[in-house]
Amino acid sequence: MTAITPELLTEIRARFAHVETCPFTGPRVFFENAGGALTLTSVVETSARFAAIPDNQGRDNPASAALGEIIAKAREDAALFLGADAGKVFVGESGTELLFRLIADACLGTPDGVVLGSTVEHPASRSACARWAEVSGKRHVLVPHDDATGTVTPEAYAAAVTGDVRVATILHTSPVTGMSMDVPGIVAAIRAKAPEALIVVDGIQHACHGGIDIASYDIDGYVISPYKVFSRHGYGLAWASDRLSGLRHDALIGAPEGNWELGTRDTGAYATFSDVVEYFEWLGGEVSGETEPRARIAAAGKAIHDHEAALTRAMLHGTGNLPGLAEMAGVTVVGGVDNPAREGLVSFYADGQASPDLVAALADQGIRVHTRKADHYSGNILAPLGQADCVRVSLCHYNTEAEVAAFLAAMQRILG
Predict the structure, then answer these.
(1) Which of 302, 297, 303, 396 is closest to 76 using CA atoms?
(2) Alpha carbon distance 69, 67 (integer Å)
(3) In whole angstroms, what is the distance from residue 390 CA to residue 217 CA?
(4) 342-364 pLDDT, tens digit each
(5) pTM to 2 decimals?
(6) Do residues 343 and 229 make contact, with C-beta atoms less than 8 angstroms apart?
(7) Residues 199, 200, 206, 207: what is their CA dihedral angle, to the nearest 10 degrees?
(8) Which SS3 state, helix, strand or coil, does residue 361 take?
């Protein structure tokens, strides 16, 4: 296993669109990856190619048959990427829409009891649980997260689980704190008291930062948003266990049992996820001696995680003669400075500085970051901290230490 070298990083960056330049504003450093990662150039090309094809699936002609084969391969590729050896892979409108669908079916298809989630979760899963718990006559219970670390632990879940938990949700990684949760540990805590619970994981923020291994999690649903993992907007991707797929859900009368998709799907969406998986396989081959596709994908995830950890260390503790955020007077890092759960993201706020003003000042110096506000998206994290907002700096493995240095130099100038 080797690290991402400067030479390899150059090759990596060459595979993405708009790495150094915004098509609207010109040169910039892109640290807004949590809002949507850069897109693989292969995805751009594939999208254009399939947008021009007039045929649909299910027809008696060679073009239609070819589209069906492309979708079947993409489902196999996605299952490989997710580490799923059973269940169904399918696409939908978005990650949020798919979380709502999986959670709705889990709630409606189980007896009275509890729907268990946590306060660290994105509103996609929390809102779905709140709605469908009420519709299905269940109690919605939220496990409190630790404000200091921005995480929720298996121990916190264990203290809240009861035998009547029917549905449970887990956030893999927070898009506000950047902290990852111990999914296997939380699942074990749930299964210890509620072994039959249907467990759905929101993997939207995690997918581009490290490995996913569904076969080892003992869960029933996992959802990602491909635009956050180097593909494009316009679709979400989900995996559902055979148990969850076996429940009643929205479907056309007479349609095959267990079919999740409604209407004709975009073959190009499926094909672009094959591009993503191909990229991970390529990267895994560059950083390891692995030859099997799944092993290469796992190696890529490890290399990505390690590279991003090095970048966040530089951002927090400095690089060259530039001080890091942890050394800047009046700056507070959300979730703590040295938090091992961090994945490619640093959120912070500065005394006497409104975060939107900091974001605008950084934009003036060519650094693109984002404001998170204590609204319906991030209030669950920021309100307990007494913060109206924070600055989110989100990295990805194609970012460089030189870009981190540019950010730190800009922060030094802004804060004086």
Answers:
(1) 297
(2) 5
(3) 33
(4) 999 999 999 999 999 999 999 99
(5) 0.96
(6) no
(7) 110
(8) helix
